[in-house]
Structures are given as structure tokens and as C-alpha cells.
Amino acid sequence: METKLSRIAEVAKQKPKESFTSLFHLLNYEMLYQCHRELESGKASGIDGVTKNQYTQNLSENLTNLVNRLKTMNYKPQPALRIYIPKGNGKEMRPLGIATYEDKIVQMGLTKVIETIYEQDYLSFSYGFRPKRNCHDALKMLNKTIMEGKINYIVDADIKGFFNNVSHEWTMKFLELRIKDPNIKRLIVRFMKAGMEEKGIFEPTDTGVAQGSCLSPLLANVYLHYVLDLWFEKVIKKNCRGQAVIIRYCDDFVCGFQYKEEAEQFYKALKERLKKFDLEIAEEKTKIIEFGRFAECDRKKRGEDKPEVFDFLGFTHYCSKSKQGKFRVKRKTSRKKFTAKIKAMKEWVKSVRNEHTIHQIFKRTKAVLNGHFRYYGITDNYPMLQQFKYEVIKVLFKWLNRRSQRRSFNSEDFKKYLKLNPLPCPRIYVNIMS
Known about the structure:
434 residues; alpha+beta; four-stranded antiparallel beta sheet; globular
């Protein structure tokens, strides 16, 4: 299977205008078995309630049946189960669509096939949900671009409800530029039109792609590759006399410009460009700010305050100085993300304090802290890591002390328990300057 995909990748790279007409046969038993093995256990189940462990009990029979249904076009994706998780601001809720386990297998197979082709097409500044690329890579590139380039203005843009407004018609038009296999196209349409189910009520999905599946980020990347990336590279940059850059992580992107008028022209053009493809800017979340090596100096001359800051990938980026007094872009955990994570931690401890043992609560807390430190543990952000741990300890003490009197913690007991069961210490995992 890897050999077949490698061959497809090779052809896609050598022939950037090649359309692939025979791909559906790749969704065979071998491919689906591999996808089954790669899917994680313990994840939320879809509307049928089937877990990976349950599906595994009759794996050979289940996969054989699935392959036969795919071959005969009798396979029909089930509606996704809608659940809600807190947004980054800690106030609103974000809807997710949880596919059934069998649908997850097919989606992963589809993703592997389509991704093999489009990985040869994507531009270098696209980082989201791509093999061997992650958020830290995007942050490093953004840092290098601002530090070493001539960027003086940042367009911090946000697409309003992107995943909910992706046009199915445009998605298929974009895919057809590279994929002509009618069976693959039919399967993708079926997934997009599968609908959502919430509290037993079915809702059709005529637009948008459900967040929460492995197919959605791929379709989002394909969509924005044509709507944003190629347009920026071939139209915007070519019409700028100064430097112009973009860093994109799925639907989250930041653009930098050397000249203010070109930043403003881009912002106006962006609104029109997105409108053409049924998208729009969230104007309340979009701004043009003066930012870069010369921003602070120029603003001082005009008697203005320090340069504004912008958020990208969970970090607030701000202009600062190194120990040697040279210009530095620094980052810290954004207040919005910080507050939301503390709130989520508080709600969880509050809800389980009487059902879970202290050992269970601390085990989960250690996992939360380790995960937080691994993502937010980047250059210059150590103080915010310390603050996060401090706030988590406060939450633990407050709510563990509000259980029944018989099991309450006083201050001394809590300190003793922390000494015997220490929580992970903050650590910088990523050197953003490398």
C-alpha cells in the first residue's frame, strides 16, 4: 500500500496538472485494516455507540463487509453525532461532529489517498494538519519572517465560521482539478451530505464540513489552498512592491507586509476574495497593526504607545528586546486560552471531586499539565507556565476541600500530599529561535 501511495505522490509531483481517474480501488482490505490499526482507542463513539474495541471483536468480518459495501456502492456514511466543547474564549461552545467508528476508518483511508496527491501541491507556508508539520513549525517560521524580514504591518485576520460555511459545490470543483475518479467524488459528497444528529434529531448538512473528523481538515486545506494560498502567492505578492508573507494553519492565518498601504489593500481584497467563495471576514476579530523591528521606534517618534499585539495559535505575539537590547518577537500564552483552560480544569474537578479518588484526580491533572507544557513550553513563555501550574493547584485545593467533611483537605494535608505526589514542573520544550 505504501508503495502504491508513493507512486501516486511521485506522479502528482512530476505532473502538477495531472488528474487521477483510478483511486477508489485503493480503499481495499489492506488499506482499511491499516487505518483501523492507526485509529486511537478510547475516543468518543458516534451515533451507533460502537467503539474500536467492539469493532475489533469481529474485525475480519466487519472489514470484509465494509469493503464489499464500498465496491458495490452500498456504503452510506451515518450522520455525525453533534457534541459541544468550550471555545478558546471559555464562554462560547464549539460544535463537533463525531463520526461512527466505521466511518472514521473510511474517512482515514480517503484522507490518505487524497493527501498523497495534495501534499505535492500545497505551498510551503501551509502548516495545518499536514504530515511532519505542526503548530511549532508555523510559529518558528512566523518568528523568522518577522525577525529577519522587512515586515512592519500585520494583518491578523479571522474567517467567520469557516467550517460551517465551506461550500460543497466549490469543494468538489477544487477536488476535480486533481481527482476525476467518480467513485471517490461520490464518496466525498456522501460524507459531506451525511448530516448531523443531536438528541435523536437529524439535521441535513447542505454546507460546511463537520469539525471533529479526519476528513474535514483535509477538505479545509484543499479549499483554502485554492481560495487563499495560490491567490496570495500568484496575485497579492506579485502586486506588492514590498515584502508580503502569509503563514497559515488550516483556517487560522497571519499576513505580514512591509508597507501599510499594501496591508490595507490586501484587507479590502481579502473580503472580496472570500465573498466569492461563500466566506466572510469576522471583522470584529480582524485588525491591521503596526508590528516589527521598526514599529516601536516609529511609534515613539509619533508619541504613541507600544506596538499592539496579536494572537496566533494560542499565543500572544508582542514586540520586545533581547538581553543585548536587540529587537525580539516574544510570545506568551494568550489570555483567552489561559482563562479557558483554567475554567475547564475547574469545571472538571468540581464535577468529579466526589466520584473520583484523589489519586485519579491527580493522575488526570498530571496529564493536563504535561500536555499544556509540551504545547505552550516555548521560548520566553516560562512565566506563563508557572502561572498555569499555580492556578491549577489553587483549583485543586479549593474544590478538593469542598467535598464531604470527612474527606476534606486542610492546607497542611494538601501540602503534604503535593510533596508526596508532586505535579509536573514547567519546562521549555521548544526553542522557537532554532
